[in-house]
Amino acid sequence: MTTELVGLSADAYLAKLARIGGIVEERIVADSVLSPSVQLRITPLRVVQLLSTHDQLLGGPTGQSYLGARFPADNAYASRIAEAALKIGQLVADEGVIGRFAVDFLTAKQDGDWQAWAIEVNLRKGGTTHSFLTLQFLTHGDYDWKSNVFRAWSGQPKFLVASDHIESEDYRGLEISDLSDAMVTNRIHFDHTQQRGIVLHMMVCLGDCGRFGLTAVGDSADDAEALCNQAEEVLLETARRARTDHGIPSSTEGTRT
Questions:
Q1: Is residue 4 part of a domain?
Q2: Of 109, 153, 118, the residue nearest 40 (C-alpha)
Q3: DSSP β-ladder status, 149-151 and 142-144
């Protein structure tokens, strides 16, 4: 057995499980299993609002760690999880909860049909919150969950791919201004006239961890994905060139000055 937490052995986990107990969950087995989520908000008047649906991007040792998201969720099951989340939202509202929260799902495809199971309610802002708000604030748009389309104020549909884990040892040799310059030089920064491009975040982690995040806003799902991939390629090449030009050591070679 492999644990998700690095450094936690199976024996230590089982000992803790024996001491404090745990919850047994059914494992969903199907041709394809994905983990989308739904963001909602309950107003002070106890009105449940559905804000967005996402396909979560997961990774880590056992594929259970949140890395990023695509918005909106796949058309094959977006309305199904939205309807289920609204029912859950009403139950949560009846308990007196106010504010943003999210419901995580497992969706499974078996024999060509998708089924959905709600697995977790997070009473807080989550990993998909900031990327969706970035899209909303920059485009002044709105999401119609029934059609599963987000439209900017211009009427143009918009899509996003976001990641909190763009990381490499090479990025430790860059400064925040280097990232911004590379975005502008390669013309992939967010352009307000086209309402398309890359928005960077979490850049304070750059020097210590070699990690940052980004939100790619595109005119289609494929466009947003291509922008995200292009940004990673451009920034990694920029970082490697800077390391070579300036002889910056890795964390294993010495202390950065």
A1: no
A2: 118
A3: antiparallel
| Residue range(s) defining the domain that contains residue 114 | 31-128
3-state secondary structure of 193: coil
Q: Same structural domain for residues 109 and 51?
A: yes
> Is there a domain that residue 143 lies in?
no
Number of domains in the chain: 2
214 SS3 class? strand
Note the pTM of the prediction, 2 decimals.
0.87
Q: In tens digits, what is the pLDDT along the chain, a chain of 257 residues?
A: 888 888 899 999 999 999 999 988 888 888 889 999 999 999 999 999 999 999 999 988 778 889 999 999 999 999 999 999 999 999 999 999 999 999 999 999 988 889 999 999 999 998 899 999 999 999 999 999 999 999 999 999 999 999 999 999 999 889 999 999 999 999 999 999 999 999 999 998 898 899 999 999 999 999 999 999 999 999 999 998 887 765 544 444 444 43
CATH number at residue 62: 3.30.470.20
Residue 46 lies in a domain: yes
Distances (CA, A) of 89 to 38, 42, 46, 82: 10, 8, 10, 10
